[in-house]
Amino acid sequence: MTKTEDKNSSMPFIEQLKKDFENSQALKERYFFQEILNHGQSFLPSNYPKRSGSLMLKELSSHFRKKFLKDQIKDLFHSYDSYKNYLNNKRNKTYLLFIEYASKYVLSSESVISSIRKIADDEISIIYLSDFHKENGQFPDQIKIDCIGSLFKAEYSSFSKKYFAFQTEYLKKINNFSNSSKHSFVQNCFDFVSHNLNKDKPSICCRSFKYNNFKQKEEIEVWDIEDMLKAHDSFCKCTEEIKQRSDFKI
Fold first, then answer.
1. Which residues are bridge partners to 3 per DSSP?
2. Which of 41, 94, 168, 206 has the fewest CB atoms below 10 angstroms from its CB?
3. Is 158 helix (H, G, I), strand (E, B) or coil?
4. CA 108 to chain centre
5. Global pTM?
6. Segment (H or E) for 223
């Protein structure tokens, strides 16, 4: 790595971000596992699909997904560094190389969004199950609120306000970025998307037309990764606090 590359590198920022991300977890890992055992020992009902496991296993899955997210974040910063160094390099510039660096940057950011969306959906499902059990003394036959999309349906507004009133903006934003990544036909135009990214620090771009109808207004939104991760961390703390309440122990 040259001195110029080292100067432009965001690796010190990555390590600090990773450290902050790890330290911000509400519980130390050993205590966390003990709390999972206390919280979710009961197996799900027999009418649930075979090998559904228990809430304990679901909590563990969510925990390890959060740990895997840290590696995805590190990959995102590496791809950002490569993309930024390419833009700052005055030599050996070709459109093919530009597309290669830009696509890695965009795709790594989309993988982070995908994991964060899955974490949010899982936490919403777990809290719905726990809430239903608390109110009815049993598990539901159907998990009616199983993702961000169902959370904000009008019929479930009371549940949404009860548990996620302060996370509404974050969850709706994650939903928009995730849906754009999955469904938007124009989201894969890497050259356009990458030009709309923040060049000074890692960010993600959401580009879409509603229902892929090009007569609709084009929607473009950019979100700094640092701001997104802070909001994600706040959401995780919120859900952990909910699940640690004494009336949520199953």
1. none
2. 94
3. helix
4. 12
5. 0.77
6. strand 218-224
Place of tokens 């660096």: 101
Residue type present at position 141? D
DSSP H helical ranges for 40-94: 55-88
* Structure token digits, residue 208: 């879409």
Amino acid making up residue 9: S
Q: Which amino acid is at 220?
A: I
How many separate domains does the chain show?
1
Look up residue 143 and give its amino acid.
Answer: I
What is the extent of the structural domain holding 67? 3-248
- How many angstroms separate the CA atoms of 155 and 162, rounded? 13
Are 124 and 63 a contacting pair, CB within 8 Å? no
Q: In this structure, what token pair is assigned to residue 9?
A: 């590198």
Q: What is the pLDDT along the chain (250 residues), one digit of tens a residue?
A: 444 444 445 555 555 555 554 555 444 454 444 554 454 444 455 555 555 556 667 777 888 888 899 999 999 999 999 988 888 887 778 888 888 888 898 889 999 999 999 999 999 998 998 898 888 888 888 889 999 999 999 999 999 999 999 999 999 999 999 988 888 888 877 777 777 777 778 888 888 888 889 999 988 888 998 999 999 999 999 998 888 875 666 5
For residue 122, give the nearest of 57, 72, 168, 181 by alpha carbon: 57
CA distances from 89 to 47, 106, 134, 144 (A): 60, 20, 59, 52
